[in-house]
């Protein structure tokens, strides 16, 4: 019998994710100051009453970082859930139905993927009102094209198996085959892909905020914090590097967990006959 152990790298990733989620959930109770509260002079150094110093407006950087975790993670998570729901539903439907439906969905998806994601998002967000639900929707629609591609690939592998053919012969509908036959047998690789898309959503949201079309001030998010404090780098102020490091650290932690999930999935596939 093969016993699966969690490697140290995965534990590091899990610890980083748990810490970020803890900050996001309990931000109002653990942040030393308010999200928008001006508490001192601009760009004060680390130490004293301000553990990480202050930002370009004199707000506590640690408090902004904690509140930024709530905004960044919640928006990225919402966009990832929505993109996965849309992408998996359309991709599984295309794989099970086949024929004209499959060709229509696939060619439209290829058309969307041919457009540079960042440029498309900047154009759409510049035209539409600056509202949070529009930002989440745009991120989800653009990311769902990548989800569609991998979802269709794994669904096609499962759709030709005997138990799916047996379900068709029993007269089961498309919905039954998708949710009761294909989805449970593709869950492991899809969970790994969900982690990758979540990491991408964090980076994509931070990019949009840095360019001024993501989370709008005075709300705190990590990409916007980098934008607000970037001018301080010229004077040797590290205020912009701290949220940038938080973005990189969370993305790395997510990828460490995803790498473990992908290795675990491949080992399970090759180890079914082990006793």
UniProtKB/TrEMBL annotation:
PROSITE patterns the UniProt entry points to: ABC_TM1 (PS50928)
Subcellular location: Cell membrane
Domain annotation ABC transmembrane type-1: ranges: 69-258
Keywords from the named record: Cell membrane, Membrane, Transmembrane, Transmembrane helix, Transport
Bilayer topology: Multi-pass membrane protein
Domain of life: Bacteria
Record SUPFAM superfamilies: MetI-like
Listed GO biological process terms: transmembrane transport
Gene Ontology cellular component terms for the protein in this record: plasma membrane
Parts of the chain that traverse the membrane: 6-27, 73-101, 113-142, 194-213, 233-258
Signal peptide region: none
Cited InterPro entries: BP-dependent_transpt_permease, MetI-like, MetI-like_sf
Family named by the database record: Belongs to the binding-protein-dependent transport system permease family.
Name the record gives this protein: ABC transporter permease
């Amino acid at each position: 019998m093969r016993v699966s152990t969690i490697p140290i790298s995965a534990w590091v990733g899990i610890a980083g994710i748990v810490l970020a989620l803890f900050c996001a959930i309990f931000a109002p109770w653990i942040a030393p100051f308010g999200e928008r509260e001006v508490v001192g002079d601009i760009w004060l150094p680390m130490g004293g009453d301000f553990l990480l110093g202050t930002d370009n407006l004199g707000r506590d950087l640690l408090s902004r970082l904690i509140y930024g975790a709530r905004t960044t993670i919640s928006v990225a998570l919402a966009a990832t859930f929505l993109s996965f729901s849309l992408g998996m539903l359309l991709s599984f439907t295309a794989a099970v139905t086949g024929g004209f439906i499959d060709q229509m969905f696939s060619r439209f998806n290829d058309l969307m993927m041919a457009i540079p994601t960042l440029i498309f998002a900047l154009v759409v967000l510049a035209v539409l009102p600056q509202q949070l639900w529009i930002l989440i929707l745009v991120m989800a629609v653009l990311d769902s094209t990548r989800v569609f591609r991998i979802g269709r690939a794994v669904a096609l592998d499962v759709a030709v198996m005997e138990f799916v053919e047996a379900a068709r012969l029993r007269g089961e509908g498309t919905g039954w085959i998708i949710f009761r036959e294909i989805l449970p047998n593709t869950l492991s690789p899809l969970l790994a892909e969900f982690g990758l898309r979540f990491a991408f959503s964090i980076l994509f949201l931070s990019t949009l905020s840095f360019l001024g079309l993501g989370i709008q001030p005075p709300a705190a998010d990590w990409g916007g914090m980098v934008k607000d404090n970037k001018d301080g780098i010229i004077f040797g102020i590290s205020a912009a590097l701290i949220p940038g490091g938080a973005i990189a650290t969370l993305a790395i932690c997510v990828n460490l967990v995803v790498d473990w999930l992908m290795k675990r999935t491949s080992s399970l596939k090759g180890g079914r006959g082990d006793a």
